[in-house]
Amino acid sequence: MNNNISNLYMISKKQKRNIIGLMSGTSVDGLDVCLCSFTGSGMETNLILENFETVVYEDEYKSEIFSVFSKKEVNLEKLCLLNGWVARYHAQIILDCLKKWNIQTDEIDLIASHGQTIFHAPESLHGIKKFGNATLQIGDGDHLAHKTGIITLSDFRQKHIAAGGEGAPLAAYGDILLFLDEKENRIMLNIGGIANFTFLPGKKNPDEVFCTDTGPGNTIMDSYIQKYYPGKFYDDNAAIASKGTIHEALLKTLKINSFFNQPFPKTTGPELFNLNYLKNAQNISQTENLSGEDIMATLNRFSADTICLAIKECSLAYKNVHCFLSGGGMHNPLLRKNIESQLPGFSFSSTSELHINPDAKEALLFAILANESIYGTGGYFGKNRKGIPAVSMGKISFPY
After folding, report:
1. What residues contact residue 168 under an 8 Å CB cut-off, 6+ apart?
2. What is the pLDDT of residues 214-225, one digit of tens each?
3. What superfamily does domain 171-354 belong to in CATH?
């Protein structure tokens, strides 16, 4: 038997597995690196978050990614070059983290890498039926595995699409295994560049779980700050938006898009919700001369309104819903205020109340997917129900 396959087989038989999860979102602000120890799988999954760090990207990395990010036309040579370069960049971050944590590479069983999303293209957005849903993440798993010497699982979203999903959101799998509770109706709301949530009714029945994107989270706000406020990457503590006034005509126009009328589950990305989307809405509403503060206040409310609209639509029949937040947007006090004010009767907490660092949650969820792929059965989820195909995800890359 090939040594790599033998090693993988031995990992699948271990009672405890150490898995590194990586997440780099559409905000392209840094790499989330978590180290989790696992026992069990499926509904019997138990994990401990041993270490976590967000490594802020260097300006060079951001510049290279943004040269191809979310663009219909790019330099194909540049895209090819970036695929391996991103992986080697991430691999060095892993090695640096392990050194900092005083952990040897041979103590790690697997790496679970989300990669860097370059383009997300659900059929609902591109409209070309013969091509169906598509998505592209770069940061090749072979480069990661070779440089670190650790078996790597990557490219998780492709299996989801192959099995009939849209490639996102994938949070439902980990949310089901970690947070489903028969005593409480829960919304697991993650506000990244794009906002999404998993609805967990208070019944231990994975087939009733609901997971969807809602629309923009931080993506347009961050893009606006980066373009018009040099040196800033986001509206820290909502300092700019808090000085502005919501412009109702612009807000109303921003909310006019067919995406918001599509049935759940659905997925989207900065390919739709970007500065061009804002510019078009300003043209229609004749609000081109608004101050930056007013625009940011309106964009903040736009994200909150569309998040709340989706949550209300799927939870009308339920009482006493507890909303657990994660992602960068949870640190925006104005965004939280705009959300909480529209959902009276809901309880709000971060996932830290459930003993999960909210900033680590997405990276942790990919570690869960890797654990399921190697140790689980893939059969704990609804059979293609509500965009949650019952499949194991992740391509396996060996170090040598």
Report:
1. 120, 135, 157, 160, 194, 196, 213, 267, 269
2. 999 999 999 999
3. ATPase, nucleotide binding domain (3.30.420.40)
